[in-house]
Amino acid sequence: MATPETLAELGAEVVRCRRCPRLVRWREEVAEDPPPRHRGETYWARPLPGFGDPAARVFVVGLAPAAHGGNRTGRVFTGDRSGDWLFRSMHRAGFATQPESEHPGDGLRLTGAYLAAAVRCAPPANKPTPEERDNCLPYITRELELLGRVRVLVTLGSFAWGAALRALGKRGTDIPKPKPKFGHLTEAEVGDYALLGSYHPSQQNTFTGKLTEEMLDAVFRRARELIAPRKP
């Protein structure tokens, strides 16, 4: 009988992945010629494994690492402004032990939550292709297998919403018809899971006011409500 897989073993496999030639080239080119603000830093320049609590009830799915964020630091949503917004909100909701995520080893822990990206490598212009998304889908599927207590998937943006639905379908979960459409604070029951949509905390959304801190906080408050024990 095969030994059950662990999150650490899956993470090690993710880091070695070279399935998408375009993404491999891009992540490594970015590391070789960083902007002045990051000159002299050693970039991670590899795919990013998930990060968080093995007993998580909430799984947060993002788009992909930022070229000079996670691709630089080696931890998802770490070292960029999107991550600043995300972790402040998760901290206010009690899912993160601190509001900053600067680098691995900074003391940050997630409690009750796990965080991963639909695509594990930084893509050019932050736009992965459908093929690149599908190459990464098995990683989310296997993480869900290992994170057996997850009941809520918070998806940051429509791309992550679609990837989460595909991953659940790969697991054999019945997807509702018509397929649930993404929206901010949209909820959908998908098998044993609640799918919860949020606008992505990208600068394009936060600078324009499409996403405010209160709007993002509302998502994580709702996630907290969805995992709360039901009253008799």
Summarize the structure.
Helices cover 37% and strands 12% of the residues.
Sequence of strands across the biggest β-sheet: 1-3-2-4-6-5
The succession of helices and strands, N to C, reads HHEEHHEHEHEEHH
Largest sheet: 6 strands, mixed
Count of folded domains: 1
The total beta strand count reads 6
- Poorly predicted tracts of residues: none
- The secondary-structure class comes to alpha/beta
Shape-level CATH architecture: 3-Layer(aba) Sandwich
Morphology call? globular
Question: What Rg do the Cα atoms give?
Answer: 17 Å
Mean pLDDT score, rounded?
96
Oligomer category: single chain
CATH topology: Uracil-DNA Glycosylase, subunit E
**Terminus-to-terminus distance:** 41 Å
Name the beta content range: 5-15%
Q: What CATH first level would be assigned? A: Alpha Beta
Number of helices: 8
How helical, in percent, are the residues? 25-40%
Provide the CATH superfamily.
Answer: Uracil-DNA glycosylase-like domain
Structure keywords:
single chain; 8 helices; 6 strands; 232 residues; 12% strand; six-stranded mixed β-sheet; Uracil-DNA Glycosylase, subunit E; alpha/beta
Report what the structure shows:
With 232 residues, this protein is α/β, with parallel strands linked by helices. It has a single domain, classed as Uracil-DNA glycosylase-like domain (Uracil-DNA Glycosylase, subunit E, 3-Layer(aba) Sandwich), CATH 3.40.470.10. The protein has eight helices and six strands; from the N terminus they run H-H-E-E-H-H-E-H-E-H-E-E-H-H. Helix 4 crosses helix 8 and helix 5 crosses helix 6.
